[in-house]
Amino acid sequence: MTKKDRKVLLKAQQGELDAVLMYNALTAAVKRKKDARTFRQLAAEEGHHAAVFKKLTG
């Protein structure tokens, strides 16, 4: 993997981690339990994506 490729993947990984934080914050901000569950699920999915990138970037 080139340095440029790694840099791109690290940026994508950070984006996924930022999304986890955003969805978790939204979970705390909504009143409906259904909405909170949806945001928790989205956070988990984004966390999985970040983990995939971490395997690639080390």
Summarize this structure as a short list of keywords or feature phrases.
single chain; 58 residues; mainly alpha; 2 helices; 0% strand
Task: Provide structural commentary.
- The protein has 58 residues and is mainly α.
- The chain has one domain (3-57).
- 90% of the residues lie in helices and 0% in strands.
- The chain has two helices and no strands.
- The protein has helices spanning 3-29, 33-57.
- Helix 1 (3-29) packs antiparallel against helix 2.
Radius of gyration of CA atoms, rounded to a whole number: 14 Å
The helix content, as a percent range, equals: over 70%
Mean pLDDT: 97
Number of strands: 0
Please indicate the count of domains: 1
Q: Outline the low-pLDDT stretches.
A: none
| Individual helix count | 2
Largest sheet: none
Instruction: State the secondary-structure class.
Output: mainly alpha
Mind sketching the topology for me?
Elements: H1 3-29, H2 33-57
Brief synopsis:
By secondary structure, the protein is mostly helical. The chain is built from 2 helices and no strands. The model has no long low-confidence stretch (mean pLDDT 97).
